[in-house]
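Retro notes (design track)

What went well: tokenization of the new backbones is finally stable.
What didn't: we kept losing track of which sequence belonged to which structure.
Fix going forward: every design gets posted as structure first, then sequence, in one message. First example under the new rule, 246 residues:
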């Protein structure tokens, strides 16, 4: 197991200082992380001839610094965006250039009117399977994270993974995100563990809906409780592992 950090964890710092990807690689190395995860590379953060050229430069810089790239994570919505499978295949090409062994993508963020989450899973699953078959040919495993409120609790994400039904497709297990759907992580993580390709560790503060509104910095869970994030970092599981670390 490698303990890493995501480029997302530097988002506020990058916004305030205009730091580029090379500079946060330096910081991650200085802070002692074993690996780094990148989220949706953007040319406005670090100009290059193309996204592929940027990915190539980042990989070379990480190799120079001795900091492996654990994963590439991208946004996706297979229900509400046209040609999403083709776009995410293009992101798998970027993951290949980065040398990332894992690519996380979303399934969907909202349901068309009248559609249930189960119907959404049935519609998205063939497209997700198409993406993972494409990525598998490149040696990249794909996965979806438990987040976004609709597919956030353990049973729903497990339903998605079992519906896609492909050995190259698994779960990015965010141990804190279950709380957003009022799913106790102590119950949810054992359900997720057999499907885990990658993990995020997040520390949430939690307050019941029966408490007074705690104010700024807190968000509502699906059932109206309150949570606030404290700390977050990703962990990449060994390539042959199918379980979460202890």
């Amino acid at each position: 197991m490698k303990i890493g950090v995501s480029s997302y964890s530097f988002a506020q710092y990058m916004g305030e200082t205009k730091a580029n990807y090379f500079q946060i690689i330096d910081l991650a190395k200085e802070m002692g992380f074993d690996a780094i995860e990148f989220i949706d590379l953007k040319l406005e953060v670090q100009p290059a001839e193309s996204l592929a050229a940027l990915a190539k430069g980042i990989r070379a810089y990480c190799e120079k610094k001795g900091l492996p790239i654990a994963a590439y994570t991208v946004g996706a919505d297979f229900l509400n965006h046209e040609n999403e499978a083709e776009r995410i295949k293009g992101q798998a090409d970027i993951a290949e250039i980065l040398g990332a062994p894992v690519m996380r993508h979303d399934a969907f963020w909202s349901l068309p009117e009248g559609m249930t989450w189960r119907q959404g899973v049935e519609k998205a699953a063939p497209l997700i399977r198409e993406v993972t078959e494409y990525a598998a040919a490149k040696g990249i495993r794909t996965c979806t994270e438990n987040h976004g409120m609709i597919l956030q609790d353990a049973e729903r994400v497990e339903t998605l993974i079992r519906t896609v039904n492909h050995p190259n497709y698994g779960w990015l297990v965010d141990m804190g995100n279950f709380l957003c759907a009022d799913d106790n992580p102590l119950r949810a993580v054992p359900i997720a563990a057999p499907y885990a390709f990658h993990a995020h560790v997040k520390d949430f503060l939690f307050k019941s809906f029966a408490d007074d509104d705690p104010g700024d910095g807190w968000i509502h869970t699906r059932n109206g409780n309150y949570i606030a994030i404290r700390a977050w970092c990703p962990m990449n599981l060994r390539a042959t592992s199918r379980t979460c670390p202890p």
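Added context from the reviewer: Residues 2-236 form a domain with the TIM Barrel fold (CATH 3.20.20.150).
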